[in-house]
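Example 3.2
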Amino acid sequence: MKNKIYLILLLSVISGIFSGCYTVPETGRHSLNISSEGDMATLSAQSFEEMKKTEKINTDPVTNARIQALGKRIIAAVGNDVPYANWEFVVFENDEINAFAMSGGKVGVYTGLIKFVDNEDQLSFVIGHEIAHVVARHSNERYSQQIIAQLGSMGLGVAMSGYSEATQQIAMQAYGVGAQYGALLPFSRSQESEADTIGIRYMARAGYDPREAPKVWEKMAARSSGSVPELLSTHPSDESRIKNLKSLVNENMPVYEAAKKKMAETK
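Structure, written as tokens:
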């Protein structure tokens, strides 16, 4: 019976793999999205509504106007790459230095981040980075990876069913470590790097200076008292991110200059 259940799940996932291949618009990378993006957007909208009920929302008109204006420029840079998008930017009264974006275009910005950055350019990079996660469908991809990892665990359990309990435990522990540090964490780090790459493009297209992007992580690194080794982290190290972003500045400067010129001509 266990083998039959596993076979059914395996066939379901294989079907999802063939129907769920997604090409990230900005990088051309192929990713696996088993879940429907429409379903992801619906769940995100529900979660965002709950968050607005439970978390304190900033009501300062100047702060909110600032975020809405910045968001509008970034959205224009994104274009039509977010299906089911119903864009909404909300400022939450929270000292945490953070922002997030959810499937379907739900964006939250914490006041701690607004106070932390030096200027609009730095803020635009962080928001652009978070929106890049949505465009690349990283949450869908992570969910798909977890499903495959769980399926692999089930398959190993079936394959090892004839061995002793001690041998089964050793095999399952080895698989868990291998999946976590050999697949899931590296994928998370590559997703963060991809979001940095896309985010700096968005800010440049929106007329924000890409030279300010690496400065965000320089500030983060200076603030951090210590860091988890990159191998054990879901995020690249500060040093890796700063180096990567600095390497992307020159290619995005012409885009930024063109956007600034166009903005000046339309005033």
